[in-house]
Amino acid sequence: MKYLNKLLYLSVVFLMVFACKKDSDETEPIRDVQEQTLNDDEALIAYLKTHFYNYEEFSKDPDNYKIEVALDTIAEENSDKTPLWDQVQTKTVEITDRNDNEIPTKMYFLVAKTGVGENPSLVDSTFVTYKGSLLNGEVFDQRNLPMWFNLASGVIRGFKHFLPELKAGDHTVNPDGTYELDHYGNGVFFIPSSLGYYAQSISTIPQYSPLIFSVALHKVNPADHDNDGILSRDEDPDGDGNPLNDDTDLDRNPNYLDTDDDNDGTPTQVEYDRNGDGIADDDDNDGIPNYLDADNN
Fold it and tell me: What is the pTM for the complete model shown?
């Protein structure tokens, strides 16, 4: 009898361990993007309505570009501050879910300092400093020394779509060879997880986390990713400001990464401007430049 009781006990323990292991091994299904984005938007709106940024500091010293964006809760001595909700702008970014459904996704942003240089495109390289945090204020990443980011492929979508709202700054070289960055664009943006890391858990960023980034844009370097002689920002034949969605020959390789944009066997670099006048050639005068025209005879 004791043997049977012991056997039953071991069997129960085994079943409990197996059940726990099974539960721990089960992976949560990826959440519906549209539903999660709506939930994230509610969280972002709640944050924006209860927090403010140091706008008074910026307005008191308008020529000081070294002021950084600081966020705080509207409470107690700060109860009279203007909420971010009354100051942010919005931008809608189209994303595609697993079923190829187009989902309009809203992000919020604020430009504290515009900058004095040029705006980057969605496919340029940018020299930036930044700080990333969760809605609870926890900082998960920060770069106080500028670093280069390729907006075409090296950043999350929210970062890519905010940077063009800023302008680059300038710099002065000191006698000792060091340089001073100044007059740069500076701002903050707030994004749902679908424009960030979504279902991925990255370092201290939990899955499905809305994110906040404050960014300063110091330099812009227009890129030519496919080395075809045309800046990637100019490989935008539909003129919508987004070279990422232009694929003339429908080979699933966007023009800015395609050395033969019309797939006619002649590299874009060769047929773009044979006479060297700085204007794209159009031999058959049909309004379509040779490098985008597979039939240019």
Answer: 0.85
